Amino acid sequence: MMRASSILVPRPEGLFCPPGGFYVDPVRPVARALITHGHSDHARPGHGAVLASAETLAIMAARCGAGFAGSTETAEFGQPMRIGEVSVSFHPAGHVLGSAQIAVAHRGLRIVASGDYKRAPDPTCAGFEPVACDVFISEATFGLPIFRHPPAADEVARLLASLKLFPERTHLVGAYSLGKAQRLARLIRLAGYDRPLYIHGAMENMMRLYAEAGVDFGAIVKVSTTERHKIGGEIVLCPPAALGEIWSRRFSDPVTAFASGWMRTRARARQRGIELPLVVSDHADWQELCATIAETGCEELWVTHGQEDALLHWAGTRGLKARPLHMVGYGDDGEAEPA
Amino acid sequence: MMNRFASLLDRLAYEPRRNGKIALIADYFRSEPDPERGFALAAMTGALRFRNAKPGLVRVLIAERTDPVLFALSYDYVGDLSETVALLWPAPRGLNRPSPGLAEVVETLQRLPKTDLPRQLADWLDALDETGRWALIKLITGALRIGVSARLAKTAVAALGTLSADDVEHVWHGLAPPYTELFAWAEGQGSRPENADPVPFRPVMLAHPIEDRDFATLDPAAFSAEWKWDGIRVQAAGARDGDGNPLTRLYSRTGEDISGAFPDLAGALALDATIDGELLILREGRVQSFNVLQQRLNRKQVSAALIADFPAHIRAYDVLVDHGEDVRALPFSERRERLEALIAHEHDPLLSISALIPFASWDALAAHRADPSEAGDDAAAIEGCMLKRCDSPYLPGRPKGLWFKWKRDAMVVDAVLMYAQRGHGKRSSFYSDFTFGVWRPAEDGEELVPVGKAYFGFTDEELAELDKYVRRHTINRFGPVREVAHGADGGLVLEIAFEGLQRSSRHKSGIAMRFPRISRIRWDKPAIEADRLATLEALLEPAA
Ligand SMILES: [Zn+2]
Ligand SMILES: [Zn+2]
Questions:
Q1: Cα–Cα distance measured from residue A142 to residue A307, given in angstroms and rounded to the nearest whole number
Q2: Which pTM does this prediction carry?
Q3: Average pLDDT for chain B
Q4: Cβ pairs bridging A and B (under 8 Å)
């Protein structure tokens, strides 16, 4: 049997597959790239050929322009395809619209590169499907047992309760523009909120893309420059960085909320001056990480990025071989450490 | 439910605005039944104590349930024990047990033998969610610091109906948790609680700082002047209880009962009056500086030795209730006569009257203020003058035009802006907390050393300019903090006003500033011309 470490090899550009001649989520331009999902730390422009799900390709085109790669090819979920000497298949990762895990099989050995993933239900993207494998490659963004994400619907209920308590104050909700904002918007609708939802201009194209993919957001209004101070008692979704920027000052007496897995700890929320922390994440929490690793039946765990120490220790206590890949350049998808 | 109380505390911990806090608490009181809300009120007013629950117990419980490496990594990341345990606690899945009520927790803890506590606490932690566990641990270990004063909680009770916070204050000390009759009264469902406290707190009257331009409009003949003492403002309320025994209680200016911290006053005074005054430390008849008082305030345990070393004393300047008669509506001049008679009659070494300063013109008063040495031995504890209109009634809060404080000129120093941090609430998009430093000798020339932090003193326009300056001159970021360019060839000079300086081993510069604020932004001044540390050292107060 072939050694897993010669099927996928960490390199500065990203994870490289020598027998297949491709990289997974490379951070530098390469000839052939397989992309797990559309977040900018995983999906970068300038590659020769890109293979990704149809949704991920659409997201990349919307964010980087139609010529983001020399050529593109659509991967269908669950359909094995041959690349060089290996067999490759894409499987839903439950992270954002179009997000995939990539399974690479070669001479009886299967490795799954899971990209970013979560197990909590999300009405805006296909749910994670566990894939049996010998080696599972996981991120560890929330790789500490203190990270337990509550049901997202409960957090949205807290937002709506706050709006009821302070009906005259605008609720500014920081949420990453790809994935988080759409999930929140949809959950807010599912909770029965029927007023228009206001959005920051930077979110417009991703909201439209999700809407075209069939996600129903109801009435969406882009906040215009002139009338910010006139909006009172509404929900306004904006990129997290905008909460600390001059943009946010025009609203009269807003409640600042931030939807992120990092809001689990008080110090982090206070540091950012957040009044209403909402613990909503598009990454797996500790229990989801552990459960998923166990579910794949893998004998070996590789950790790409995040807080790997605790996860490696846990794997050791379970008799799993585990090693960190120390991949650089990931974790900048809006749930990164605040700058 | 404990969970409801926990989510209230959680929300309060992030709410910077007073009105926001009141709205949150009132909303909670409205939606929670008795006795739950009453115990919540008790928790917020500091009326609950649990002797047996210690942080060590919580550590033992979590160690029995978690991998030590995972605990250590988590604690290191979170930094707070209650929060780490709350997040890490392995709640059993599918546990079909309701989460405990707050009343149940309080009542159980009061009767539970110490040996049963670990098992009981673990059962509760199993049944609660993360926020509930956090609140429970904070509550029982007495670490409930949520930025809510007793006064604020009482204001929220009043907000349930048409009462004022003062109405609640008047009946407060006759009541005990869970305050059922208080809530009924506040909601208009019941009558005023009968067992009114014989010695309630009465809200204090506060002064406005006087501005130079005010003098032109004020007639010196209409005012009375006295020294402003640098101690802590207290209200001593004394009366006879139902059995005819003297009862005295000491309150802070916000209405916290501080009798326990000053048994040498509360236990010894036998007033039949409520007086307003300054708590000072008096050694051999001589008033000590605030630094000395601070040393007593810093001690948690009030021992006989502490009392002997730091004897407390009240310098009285007003009377609110005189032998059962509420005299607050009388003019100041009449209250003053009553106070003089009262202090003379008491003839108690724990009490003295704050002397009036005779003056004919504002200039004459300015001369007294500039040189308080005429107060003799007590001059070290004088921080300026108080001006009170002779016809002013005693009104709660800070009414306009009646009382003024005229402080001695603050000290100022020119310092250089070094770091800035974003503020909270309304200011969260502004860099509004400023760390500044002065020059001191270094190996190769001079370096800036931080000497303090200021977050007020500027106007909104100035704040906007400072914010813009910080954003344009950032050279480093550490989380919410930005390092602003500072050095011999560039930097912004801030004129800092402050009330005093003390030596401090906790500060890199070796000094700590009292009450620093930005008095002027010196856009014009080169950084190299800012003050030297030696200048500040020369201003140090003599060690107490
Ligand atoms: Zn991602
Ligand atoms: Zn990522």
A1: 7
A2: 0.67
A3: 88
A4: 88
Q: How far is CA B168 from CA A48, A116, A311, in A?
A: 74, 55, 54
- B510 torsion bin: left (phi>0), alpha (psi -120 to 50), beta (else): left
Is there a contact between A51 and A57 (Cβ–Cβ < 8 Å)?
no
Confidence band, pLDDT 50/70/90 cuts, at residue A338: very low
User: Chain B, 429-458: which have a CB under 8 Å from a chain A CB?
Assistant: 429-430
CA atoms of A170 and A181, how far apart (whole Å): 17
- pLDDT tier at B400 (50, 70, 90 boundaries)? confident
Residue type for position A29: P
Q: What is the spatial distance between Cα A92 and Cα B485, in angstroms, rounded to a whole number?
A: 48
Give the chain A residue nearest B426 (alpha carbons). A253
Which of A170, A270, A275 to mutate against chain B (most B CBs within 10 Å)? A275
Residue B92 identity:
P
Query: What are A298-317's pLDDT values in tens digits?
Result: 999 999 888 889 999 999 99
Count of CB atoms situated within 10 Å of the CB of A185: 29
Q: What is the DSSP letter of B381?
A: G
DSSP conformation class of A263: G
Query: Order of strands, edge to edge, in the sheet holding B382-389?
Result: B208-209, B403-407, B382-389, B223-229
CA–centroid distance, B350 to ligand 2, in Å, is 69
Say what the alpha-carbon torsion angle A25, A29, A34, A39 is, to the nearest 10 degrees: 40
- What phi, psi does B203 have (nearest 5°)? -55, 140
Q: A99 to chain B nearest CA, in Å?
A: 29
Ligand 1: centre distance to CA A39 (Å): 5
Q: Measure A177 CA to ligand 2 centroid, in angstroms.
A: 14
Using CA atoms in the order B10, B15, B16, B17, what is the torsion angle rounded to 10 degrees?
A: -140
| Residue B324 vs residue A105, higher pLDDT | A105
Q: Which amino acid is at A334?
A: G
**Is the pLDDT reported for residue A146 higher than 80?**
yes
- Min Cα separation B234/chain A (Å): 34
- Please give the distance, rounded to the nearest whole angstrom, from the Cα atom of residue A41 to the centre of ligand 2: 6
**Which residue intervals of B323-433 are DSSP H helices?**
332-346, 362-370
Q: What is the mean pLDDT of chain A?
A: 92
Contacts of A303 (CB under 8 A, 6+ apart): A137, A138, A139, A140, A143, A311, A312, A322, A323, A324, A325
Q: What is the residue whose two structure tokens read 């006795």? A: B35
Percent of chain B with pLDDT over 90: 46
CB contact under 8 A, B423 and A273: yes
Q: Of the candidates B145, B191, B134, B167, which has an alpha carbon nearest to the alpha carbon of residue B2?
A: B134
On the 0-12 / 13-18 / 19+ scale of CB atoms within 10 A, A207 is: buried
d(CA A313, CA A318): 9
Q: How confident is the model at residue A332 (pLDDT cuts 50, 70, 90)?
A: low
- CA dist B178 and A184 (Å) reads 40
Out of A111-125, A211-225, B85-99, the most confident range is: A111-125
The confidence score (pLDDT) of residue B434 equals 94
Q: Give pLDDT, residue A229.
A: 67
Rounded average pLDDT over B473-487: 86
Which of A239-253, B58-72, B380-394 shows the lowest per-residue confidence on average (mean pLDDT)? A239-253
Q: CA of B67: how far to CAs of B90, B134, B252, B476, in Å? A: 11, 20, 47, 38
Cα(A220)–Cα(A207) distance, integer angstroms: 9
Sequence-distant (≥ 6) Cβ neighbours of residue B343 within 8 angstroms: B316, B351, B352, B353
Q: Cβ separation of A314 and B27 shorter than 8 Å?
A: no
**By the 8 A CB rule, do A159 and A193 touch?**
no
Residue A216 has a CB neighbour count (10 Å cut-off) of 11
